[in-house]
Amino acid sequence: MLFSGGSAANSTRGRGEFDGSYQDPFSRFNKQNDDPFAQFYRQNDGPFSNQFYKVFSEVFQHDVDVHASDIEIELNLSFGEAAKGCTKEVPFSAKNLCYSCDGRGYLANARKYVCPSCKGAGKVSMYPFTSICTTCRGFGKVIKDHCLTCKGAGVVDGMKYANVIIPAGVDSGDTIHVREAGNSGGRGAIPGSLYIKLRVASDPVFVRDGADVHVDKKISFTQAMLGGKIEVPTLDGKTEIKIPKGVQPGQVVVLRGKGLELPNQAGYFGDQHVRFKIHFPLKVNERQRALLEDFAAEEATKEQSFFATGNWLYEQLSTG
C-alpha cells in the first residue's frame, strides 16, 4: 500500500490513497478550429495521425517539468510503532543543494550569455504550441563559468533527514511517499520524492492478522475447570477478562475493538483474540493426588459407560 505524507507538519493520507487528479492536456485547444493538430487527427484517423498528434502535443503543449531523481529507502519499525503510529527521523544519503552556489550551478558574479536557442525569450514556439526552452530552462540566459564545487550541477552528495509521520496500523511492505524530500534539484529543478518501504518486526506476544491481533494465554487446569479472572496484554496495556467455566484447550475469547486501527479506516478497530492454552502439572503432591483421585472416582461413577475404562486421569493416578 502507498501512503502519501511526510514531515510532522504535513498531513498523512490513508492506505491506498493516491493523487489521481487529472486535467485534460488539450483543454486550451478544445475547439475544433483552435487546434489544427486535433483537426488533422479527426480528419485522418489512423495509426500515423494518432502518433503524430501524441508526439507534437507532448513536445510543444507542455512546459518542461524537470524533476530530480527519487530516492527509495527501507525503514525498520517495531510492532508497537507500527500498531500505534509514530514519528521517525529518517537519515538517508541524497543530493543536496551546493553550498557554494546555493544550487544555481554558478557563482553569483558569473557572466551570463543570451541563450542561443531561444534568443533570450526562455521559450520556443511552433504554432500553435509554446514550450519552455530546454537549453536555458526558461531563464533566457546560459552560464559558461560553472561552480567549481558542484561542477555546474547545483548539487553535491550528502545526508538528509526527514521527520516522517508513520500512521497507525501500517504493515510490512507498505510505502510512505514524501513529496520533494528526495534528491535536491539543482539549477531550478524540482526535488524528487522519497519513498520509504516499511519493515515491521514480529512481536513475542501479539500475532497480527489484518486489523485483528491474536494472543495466547496460559491458564492452569483448575482455572479451566472452575473459571475465574485473569489479566491479558492488549495494545493499550493490560486488561482483565473472565475465564469461562470448563474452557477447553484452544478456546478463544474475543475482545471487540482491541485490535489495530487501519490507516484507511479511521475510527474502526479490529478485535483481539485470546486463545487459552491449558497447563497440566507434571507432578502433584499427596493431598492434590488424593483430591484428584476422589474427583476421578466420582466422574467414573457418574459416567460409567464412558469413564469406567477410559478416564485417563484416573488411570494415570492409579498406575502412577
UniProtKB/TrEMBL annotation:
A Pfam family annotated for this chain is: DnaJ_CXXCXGXG
Record flagged with keyword Repeat: yes
Q: Per the record, what is one GO cellular component?
A: cytoplasm
Q: Name one process (GO BP) from the record.
A: protein refolding
Keywords, A to Z? Metal-binding, Repeat, Zinc, Zinc-finger
The organism sits in which domain of life? Answer: Eukaryota
- Tell me the GO molecular function terms: heat shock protein binding; unfolded protein binding; zinc ion binding
Q: Where are the zinc fingers (CR-type)?
A: 85-159
Span of domain CR-type: 85-159
Supply the InterPro entries for this chain: DnaJ_C (IPR002939), HSP40/DnaJ_pept-bd (IPR008971), HSP_DnaJ_Cys-rich_dom (IPR001305), HSP_DnaJ_Cys-rich_dom_sf (IPR036410)
Instruction: Show the PANTHER family listed in the entry.
Output: CHAPERONE PROTEIN DNAJ 1, MITOCHONDRIAL, DNAJ HOMOLOG 1, MITOCHONDRIAL-RELATED
Per its record, how is this protein called by name?
CR-type domain-containing protein
Gene that produces this protein: LOC125519948
